[in-house]
């Protein structure tokens, strides 16, 4: 009898199982790296003949809830792509208090500025839940920029959009009303992390009042009052740590 050839190994199989608690292994399927990159940078498609090399360059790191990925003042040796879970970017005061800058979920890219400039990070990144991130180190960064079609342009576009959004928020802080600033902050959050539901007119985002207040340059009390008004007007719904926003309610 002829022997049936063994099936080809999955490309994900080259990524090792992730450590969890001492003596245990994370048995969840490893997230799909090419799909993660395409979700973060929609114009990028990794050619099939480059996939195996991509997996050897970009490891997936597991983080327990509460574990720090990098500290404020540390020079990161990679930038990161959230594979699953939730990562919080936060400032630390001298007294040890924290202020949330952003909560990041799949497929958020972060940490690029400190990584590329090799300057100390201005914030701390820590896992809010058990999470996994892809680590794009120097060898992977150089290979993606030099060899992967469209990656450099897509990365530049992504961070140009963020810069434009930040400039818009700074300009709004000087000239716009509180309501306009809140709507602009919500629009940027929807663009960065909005999730469509059954009704395509609505998008759901994960954000706290403190995060909105920082983005809109408003007090938490003002943000709370404006969110209540938006609910009354019918273009916003509040849930625990989440907001659903009707797109035609944004500027």
From TrEMBL:
One of its GO terms (cellular component) is cytosol. Residues 1-30 are annotated as: Disordered. Residues 63-162 form the Cyclic nucleotide-binding domain. It comes from the Bacteria. SMART domains: cNMP. One of its GO terms (molecular function) is DNA-binding transcription factor activity. It holds the Pfam family cNMP_binding. InterPro entries: cNMP-bd_dom, cNMP-bd_dom_sf, Env_Response_Regulators, RmlC-like_jellyroll, WH_DNA-bd_sf. PANTHER family: CRP FAMILY TRANSCRIPTIONAL REGULATORY PROTEIN (PTHR24567), DNA-BINDING TRANSCRIPTIONAL DUAL REGULATOR CRP (PTHR24567:SF68). This is Cyclic nucleotide-binding domain-containing protein. It comes from Roseateles depolymerans.
């Amino acid at each position: 009898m002829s022997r049936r050839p063994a099936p080809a190994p999955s490309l994900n199989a080259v990524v090792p199982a992730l450590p969890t608690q001492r003596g245990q292994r994370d048995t969840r399927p490893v997230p799909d790296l090419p799909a993660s990159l395409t979700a973060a940078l929609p114009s990028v498609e990794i050619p099939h003949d480059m996939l195996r090399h991509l997996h050897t360059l970009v490891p997936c790191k597991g983080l327990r809830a509460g574990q720090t990925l990098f500290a404020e003042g540390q020079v990161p040796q990679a930038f990161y792509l959230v594979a699953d879970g939730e990562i919080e970017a936060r400032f630390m005061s001298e007294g040890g208090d924290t202020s949330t800058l952003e909560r990041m979920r799949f497929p958020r890219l972060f940490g690029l500025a400190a990584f590329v400039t090799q300057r100390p990070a201005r914030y701390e990144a820590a896992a809010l839940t058990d999470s996994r991130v892809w680590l794009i180190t120097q060898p992977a960064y150089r290979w993606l920029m030099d060899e992967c079609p469209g990656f450099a342009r897509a990365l530049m576009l992504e961070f140009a959009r963020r810069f434009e959004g930040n400039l818009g928020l700074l300009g709004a802080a000087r000239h716009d009303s509180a309501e306009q600033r809140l709507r602009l902050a919500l629009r940027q959050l929807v663009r960065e992390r909005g999730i469509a539901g059954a009704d395509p007119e609505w998008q759901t985002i994960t954000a706290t009042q403190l995060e909105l207040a920082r983005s809109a340059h408003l007090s938490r009390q003002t943000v709370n009052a404006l969110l209540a008004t938006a609910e009354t007007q019918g273009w916003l719904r509040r849930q625990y740590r989440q907001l659903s926003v009707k797109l035609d309610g944004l500027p």
